[in-house]
């Protein structure tokens, strides 16, 4: 079974530009979450999508947005890039939680974004 | 607000040694706890998942324990090998209100196993 895939793996942008990152979850997984990882802040939750709806959102500005398609693939968009947006962006997929069964999160390899 | 702390931040051991990594969290109302491994520049590999009703999980040379009431988890690695060198991250799955479920991560422990 293929794992979580993310494209592109590396991206270089300049300040003010916008960027779109893509995540394909493990087959059958319907929940996709996005995280930002930086040396200073560590891993921080951005948002979660399930059934094409944003279910949870972290404390990030509105420049960070996302969406999920009917096949569960997800995209994340960052507009008006700032130097501080340079980070490793990770997505994770899981089966949707049912009752008290909170499921294991599986992560992709990440997209390394550098903003110059 | 949930906070996760991992001690030590870095650890260097000789090959073959047994070791323990520590994780503590401030809010005991967690649904599960997951240990991950991250190699430099790579994504996260899930090692062990402990549901809130469980006390421990084992996989090969790895054993993770969970004490919800004290807000602590440990990851025990037996007979360490140079290939175990990586950053180990602990994360708790919680609900901070409404439908706001998410993983909160510690900063990790950088483990180096010397041949």
Could you list the spans of chain A in which at least 5 consecutive residues all have pLDDT below 50? none
Chain-averaged pLDDT of chain A:
92
Helix content of chain A: under 10%
N→C terminal distance of chain A: 37 Å
**Biggest sheet statistics of chain A:** 7 strands, mixed
Question: What structural class do the secondary elements of chain A suggest?
Answer: mainly beta
Tell me the overall shape of chain A: globular
Radius of gyration of chain A over all CA atoms, rounded = 14 Å
The helical percent of chain B reads under 10%
Task: Give a count of the beta strands of chain A, DSSP E runs of length 2 or more.
Answer: 11
Biggest pleated sheet of chain B = 6 strands, mixed
Strand content of chain B: over 45%
* Class of secondary structure makeup of chain B: mainly beta
Give the number of DSSP strands of chain B. 11
- Tell me the series of helices and strands of chain A, N- to C-terminal: EEEEEEEEEEE
Q: Report strand % of chain A.
A: over 45%
Explain this structure to me?
- The complex is a heterodimer of chains A (about 120) and B (about 120).
- Chain A is an all-beta fold and about 120 residues long.
- Chain A has strands spanning about 5, 10-15, 20-25, 30-40, 40-50, 55, 65-70, 75-80, 85-95, 105, 110-115.
- In chain A, the strands form 2 sheets. In chain A, strands 2, 4, 5, 6, 9, 10 and 11 form a 7-stranded mixed sheet that branches. Chain A has a 4-stranded antiparallel sheet with strand order 1-3-8-7, with no helix packed on it.
- Chain A is globular and about 40 Å long.
- With about 120 residues, chain B is mainly β.
- Helix content of chain B is about 0%, strand content about 60%.
- Chain B is built from no helices and 11 strands.
- Chain B has strands at about 5, 10-15, 20-25, 30-40, 45-50, 55-60, 60-65, 70-75, 85-95, 100-105, 110-115.
- In chain B, strands 2, 4, 5, 9, 10 and 11 form a 6-stranded mixed sheet that branches.
- In chain B, a hairpin with a 5-residue loop joins β9 and β10.
- Chain B is globular and about 50 Å long.
- Chains A and B meet through β5, β6, β9 and β10 of A and β4, β5, β9 and β10 of B.
């Amino acid at each position: 079974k293929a794992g979580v895939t993310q494209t592109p793996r590396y991206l270089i942008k300049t300040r003010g530009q916008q960027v779109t990152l893509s995540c394909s979850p493990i087959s059958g997984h319907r929940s996709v979450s996005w995280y930002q990882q930086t040396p200073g802040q560590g891993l921080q939750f951005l948002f979660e999508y399930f059934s094409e709806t944003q279910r949870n959102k972290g404390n990030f500005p509105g420049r960070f947005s996302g969406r999920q398609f009917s096949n569960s693939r997800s995209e994340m968009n960052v507009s008006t890039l700032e130097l501080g947006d340079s980070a490793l962006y990770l997505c994770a997929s899981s089966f949707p939680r049912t009752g008290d069964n909170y499921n294991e999160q599986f992560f992709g390899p990440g997209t390394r974004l550098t903003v110059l | 607000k949930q906070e996760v702390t991992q001690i030590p931040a870095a650890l260097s051991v000789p090959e073959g040694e047994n070791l323990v990594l520590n994780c503590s969290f401030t809010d005991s109302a967690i649904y599960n706890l997951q240990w991950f491994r991250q190699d430099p520049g790579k994504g996260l590999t899930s090692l062990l998942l402990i549901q809130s009703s469980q006390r421990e999980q084992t996989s090969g040379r790895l054993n993770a324990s969970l004490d919800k009431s004290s807000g602590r988890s440990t990851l025990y690695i037996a007979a360490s090998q140079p290939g175990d060198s990586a950053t180990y991250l602990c994360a708790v799955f919680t609900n901070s209100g409404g439908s706001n479920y998410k993983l909160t991560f510690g900063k990790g422990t950088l483990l180096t196993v010397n041949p």
